[in-house]
Amino acid sequence: MTKTLTAALVVSAGLLAGCTMTGPGNLKVHEALLYGSSQERLVWVYGNLGGSAQSSVKLGGTAAELRSQVQDPLAVPGTLSVNGKAVYRLGTSTLTPKLSVTRDTRGLFNVAMNEAGGTVYYTDGRTWTRLNAGTGSGVGGTPVSGLRGAGNLTDAEADALGTVLLNQGALAIAVLDPASVPDAPLSVEPAPGEYRRTALYVQAGVPTVTATTGTVTTTPGTPTGTAPTPGGRVNLTELASGSNASASTAAVQVATTQSALSALYNIAYGRQTGTPSVPSLPASDTVVGVFLGQRATGGYGVRVTGATAQDDTLTLTVTVTAPGPGSITTQALTSPWTIVRVPGRYRDVRVVDSLGRPFPVGTGGGEVR
Questions:
Q1: Domain range for residue 34?
Q2: Helix and strand totals (H; E) in the chain
Q3: Is 319 left (phi over 0), alpha (psi -120 to 50) or beta?
Q4: What residues does the PrcB C-terminal domain cover (predicted)?
C-alpha cells in the first residue's frame, strides 16, 4: 500500500512538473523598462479570458495569475490584471548617467548629455513636452499627451505612464535602445503572439536656471523693478528651481545682497555638480528661497504661485505637491526648492499655502541677510 501511494505521488509530481501554461487567448506582452532615477520594469499583459474567470502565465519563470483588469491608472484597454495588479512589476539594473538636462526661465532647454541619443521628453509635473532636438542649448519643445511616440509604447500605455509620472516635479526622460540595456526580455510561457519592449532613462529634479538673456515673469502685473502699491499684487519672477538642495529641513531664506544671493544658490545647488552663474541682484529687489526639506523619494515639489505686499510685509503663496497613491516615484533622496525675485524691500516676509496657513520652517528659516 505504502509503495503504491509513493509511486502515485511520484507520477503526480512528474505530471505537474511537465505541465505547461495554457494562457489566455490572443496573449500579448508589452513592457516598459525605467532606468536612472526610476528603476522599475512594468509589464502589461493583454489577452482574452473567454468564459473563464482566470488564467495563468509564467513571466520570467514565475507563475502569475491573470484575471479581469482592476481600477488603476496603469490599466489600459485590453489588458488583464496580474496577481491582482494592473501590471507586473520588477526591478531593473543600474545604468551610468545617460542624460543631463536643464530648463531656463524662458522655457528653453539645455541638453548637455544624451548618451542614449533618443528623443527626450520633459514634464514640469503638470504637462508634457517633447524636445525638438536631442542635444544642444536653447532647445524648444512641442506639447504632447503623456509619452506618446516614445519607443514601442501604444498611445494608451504612453498616456497611462505619463499620468503616473506626473506630480513628481521636473523630470526629463530619454528613449533608449532596448537592445542596449542590461535587462534581457522576460521569458513568457506560453509564447505570446506579440512582445514589445520600450526602455526609458529618467532624470529627476531637472533644475530651472536663469536664462542668459531676459527673464520670464510668472505673475503678470507690475513691471519688473517697480515697487508695488500698498496691499497690491507684486510682480513675481522665478529665478530657478530644482529638487536636490542641501537643505535637510523646510526653510525660507531671504536675500537682499549679492553675497546673500550667492549663499542662497549654494544651498539650492548644494547636492549637484557645479552651480550656475548667480544673477545680479538689483539694489531695490528681494530674493526669496523656499526649501521643502529632505524627502525619501521623488514626487515632491514646491512652487510660489503668488505674491502680495501690505506696507512693509511681503506675503508669498506656495503650492506644495506630493506623490499620489500608487505613483511611480524616483527612489532617491530629494530636497525640492524654488527661488523667486520680487521688487522692493521688506521688513517681514511671510510664506503661506493657498489656505493662508504658514509654511512650516525649520531652524534658520525666514532670515533676511
A1: 22-206
A2: 3, 25
A3: beta
A4: 286-343
